[in-house]
Design brief:
By secondary structure, this protein is of the alpha+beta class. The protein has two domains: 85 residues; 93 residues, hypothetical protein PF0899 fold. It is built from five helices and four strands; from the N terminus they run H-H-E-H-H-E-E-E-H. It has a four-stranded mixed beta sheet. It starts with a helix and ends with a helix.
């Protein structure tokens, strides 16, 4: 009987070990299955996130493209408003002299030019200092004329062949047409 009881105890231990092994194998299988399931879910979420990021980037680029022209137009409109505000005389005169000099470089081959300026700027451009500076950059004859249609700081350079328009609105329109 002792032998039988010993044999039963031994079989019970083996049965218990087999249960534990089965439990552990089932646990490992379940754990592996869950890991695989969650890994696939994580991959799906990552793919959805990448697709969303790409779509948002495209929408953002499209929004920027759609806004570019209206923003440029608005900035030119603001520039027009700013340019209608009179500048301090020293700034205006410096800009006017620079504009006239750059226009004279464009017509160096001409024998004579007539430079139209606003009545406010006529005395400035006819001053000895400015006239001498302009004559150094243009070898031909320069004549200055007051033009009521021009605002302070604007000019027109007229040659026998063409007119270079230095009005603010014209220069802004040229810049706008190049950018838009």
């Amino acid at each position: 009987m002792l032998l039988l009881q010993s044999r039963v105890e031994h079989l019970e231990r083996e049965l218990q070990e087999a249960r534990e092994q089965s439990y552990n194998l089932g646990f490992q299988d379940g754990l592996s299955g869950e890991r695989e399931k969650h890994s696939k879910e994580l991959e799906a979420h990552a793919r959805q996130f990448r697709e969303l990021a790409e779509r948002l980037e495209k929408e953002f680029d499209q929004a920027l493209t759609n806004m570019e022209e209206p923003l440029l137009r608005m900035s030119f409109h603001i520039s027009e408003k700013i340019l209608t505000v009179p500048l301090p005389e020293s700034i205006r005169h410096g800009a006017l002299a620079g504009t006239i000099q750059s226009f004279l470089k464009e017509v160096l081959h001409e024998g004579s030019v007539v430079i139209h300026v606003s009545p406010e700027d006529l005395a400035f451009v006819q001053s000895e200092e400015v006239s001498e500076k302009l004559r150094q950059s243009f070898p031909g004859r320069i004549r200055f004329v007051a033009d009521e249609s021009l605002t302070a700081g604007e000019c027109l350079v007229e040659t026998p062949e063409h007119i270079i328009d230095g009005r603010y609105r014209t220069r802004l329109a040229i810049l706008e047409s190049k950018l838009i």
